[in-house]
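Table S2 (text version). Query chain:
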Amino acid sequence: MELKQLCELQGISGREELVRAAIYDECVRTLGKENVTIDRMGNVIAHKRGRDADAPHVMVSAHMDEVGLMVISATDEGLLHVRPIGGIDPRVLVSKRVKVGYAVPTRDGKPAQEPLSGVIGAMAIHQQTAEDRKRVLPIDQLYVDIGAKDKDEALEKAPAGTPITFDTAFTPFGEGRILARALDDRIGCYNMLRLLTCDAHGDVDFVFTCQEEVGCRGAKTAAYSVEPDIGIALDVTANGDTPETKLPAVKLGEGAAVKIMDRGSISNPDLVRDLLAAGERAGVKTQREVLPFGGTDAMAMQVSRGGVIAGTVSIPCRYVHSACEVIDLRDVEAARALLLEYLK
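Corresponding structure-token output:
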């Protein structure tokens, strides 16, 4: 499956059905239906048998969901009130184009309704006071315009609970870089799909998780049922190569980032050592990642049952949780090569 296809699928937290269906089909094509399940939470679990039944059992995880919005009500003028799903900075929202609703096939066989086009609106600059221009409008003062003439029409087309995603074209630019929405964490899903054919030493469960952006919920239940010895999350991480960053964060184009710690977990030091060594054997660049914020599925895996040896391999990403995320494909390939070597 191409990265472009994955990024263009809509799937906010709790509404991952389009992404889940595509990933499930791809896993079945590669590993066979008998090795792929969807659990009650909505995670896709693809099991690959290793060469040595006594080797450690590994769970590799990447999340299917993306940040977005959800309709909660409408104004008399036909504008949609929304709430965020996942962590979104309101500064990045005004005037962004969005898709309202999903093209989900209906149970009665009727054609799926295509999502509506919309734009996130706010008071025009000509109408703002000097004080207005100094403050960031909170999300509860923004709205989504879908061209409805009144409240009844707006809620008929987009009732409360309707999911909203950013409408951003998948765009290659620069030298080997990609701009798109939902790279967090379709890039991890993309790499995991390409790892399904790996020559694994021990048994591996590749878990495509749901609801990571609202508390790593899918990883919690999956780790409990899979019972791995080792857990590795594949995700993106904040960059440190734009003017406003003051942290010793990682840089685009400098390789896969092996996480030492973030706010949610402290990686097992032996696993960190082994992942860095795998990157060296694979001949790819690696970076050490230390963050005072954020978290990945590793935080859920680490504390499952009696505890799991856990860590994260990250892809540096600019403008995370916005409509326009940016990654470098060289880092993606480095992460894949590192993990192939580690699992071998």
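Notes on Table S2: Residues 23 and 44 are 8 Å apart (CA to CA). Residues 17-31 form the longest helix (15 residues).
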